[in-house]
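It is worth pausing here to work through a concrete case rather than discussing structure prediction in the abstract. The textbook approach is simple: state the sequence, then state the predicted structure, then interpret. We follow exactly that order.
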Amino acid sequence: MADATDEIRLEPCEPGRLTPDELKTLFLFEKLTGEQLAWIAEHGCTMRVPAGGLVLREGDPADQFFVLLSGTISLTRRVGQDDVQTVRTEQRGVYMGATNAYLRDDGVPQNYMGSMRALSDSEFFVLSARDFGHLMREWFPMAIHLLEGLALGMRNSQAAIGERQRLQALGALSAGLMHELNNPAAAAARATGALRERVAAMRMKLGKLAKGKVAPDRLTALLELQEEVIERAAKAPVRTAMEIADLEDELGDWMDERGVTNGWDVAPIFAQGGIDTGCLTEILNRLEAPELLDQAIHWIGYALETEQLMSDIEDATGRVSSLVNAAKQYSHVDRSAHQWIDVHGGLDSTLVMLAHKIGDRVRVVKEYDRTLPQVPAHPAELNQVWTNLIDNAVQAMSGAGTLTVRTYREDDRVVVSIGDTGPGVPDEIKKRVFEPFFTTKAVGEGTGLGLDISYRIVVNGHGGDISLQSVPGDTRFLVRLPLSEPASA
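Step two, the predicted structure:
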C-alpha cells in the first residue's frame, strides 16, 4: 500500500543516456523530427527503480513525466484504506505521471492521480513536468487548445452541472417538504374552524339546558356524565370502518326511537368516539328528564366532537413539528460540519424528506443494527449520498416495489445497504455507474453526477468505500464507513 510512510526510491537520473534514435523507438516519440528528438534527449534522463520500489505517490505534486523503458509496473488508486490496482503492464513506452502538465495554470494544483510501483527492476525515461509542458505547448499548439478545451471544459461542465443538480435536488426536496407540510397544516386549519363553530354551538346548547327545568343536581350530574363520556371515548378500542358503520346504525336507530332531532347526524360522532347504546341509555337514566334528552345528546355530541377536533389539531401540529425536526436533522443547519454521528438519524430524516417521492406503492423495510457505534462524518454530505441512492432505487423500481435500508458492522466499518427490487444493473454497466456524466436515464431525467458525487463524498471525504451488487430483483449499493478518523481528516 502506498501510504505516507513509503519511501520513493529512485536512483540518480542519468542525463543524455538515450540517443535521439533510441527515443524514436518509443511509440510516443516515433513521429517527431530529429531536432525535436535531440531536444528531448538533452532535457530528459533515465532512472532505475529496484523491484518493489515506489515510483510516484497518489496526491503528491505531479512534477515528473515517466516513460517505461523496461520492467513491470503497477498503477493503483486509493479506495478507502485499500489500494486498488488499475493497471499492470510491462509494455515498453507506456507513460504516466504529469500527463496534464500542458494545462495552463488556473490555480488548481496538479497532483498525481494514482501511485506507481515497480514490480520488477525497472527503468524509465523521465522529463520534468515543466519541460514536458513546454514541448507540448510549443510543438503542438492546436492540439493543446483542443486538449485544454476538453479537460477544462469537462471540469467546468462537471462543476456547473453538479451545482445545477444540487439546486434541482434542493428544489425537489423543498417542494416535497412543502407538500408534506401543507397536508397537516391544512388539516389543522380545517379543524380549528370547525372547532370554533362547535364551541359556539355548545355554549348555546348549555344555555338552553340551563333555561330548562333541570334541577341543579341533575345539571351537575349531566356535566359529570359528559366528562365520563369523553374519558370513555379517549380509552375506546380502535374499531374498523365496518364496525364503526354498524355502530352508527345502532345509535341512529336508538335515537330515532326516542325522538332525538337529527339523530343520524349525531350518531357518527358518538360512533367515532366508541360510544355505544348502553352509554346512551345511561345518559337517559341519569338525566331523569326524558324531555331534555334531545338537548343533552346534542350537547354531549358537541363536547365529543370538540375533543376529536382538538386531537386532530394535536396530530396535525405534531406532524408539522416532526417534519421540521426531520428537515433540521437532514440539513444539520444547527450543528457542526464534522462530528461523530449515528447513521440511523440521517437515514430516517432522508426517508422522511423523500416520502413524497417514495410514494405509497413502495414498501420501506428498515433492518437497522441499533448497536452500531458512531462514525466520524460530515452528516449533511452523507445525507446527500442517502438521497441519491434512495432516489435512484425508487426510480429503478418505477415507483413500485420494496426499498430495503439495512445497517450492519463489517470488521472496522459500518455498512449501510440500500437495496431495491428493480430489474437490476447489467454487468456491462456496473463498472461505469460511478463515472461522471454516465447515466442510463432518458435525456433531461439525469445528469450522471449523482453517483459520482456520492462516490467522492464517501471515498474522498470519509475514507470509505461504495460498491454495487446487482442481480434482477435485488440491487444493493453498499456504503462502508470507517469507525475511526481517516488519516487525511
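Step three, interpretation. The radius of gyration is 37 Å. The first strand starts at residue 14 and ends at 15.
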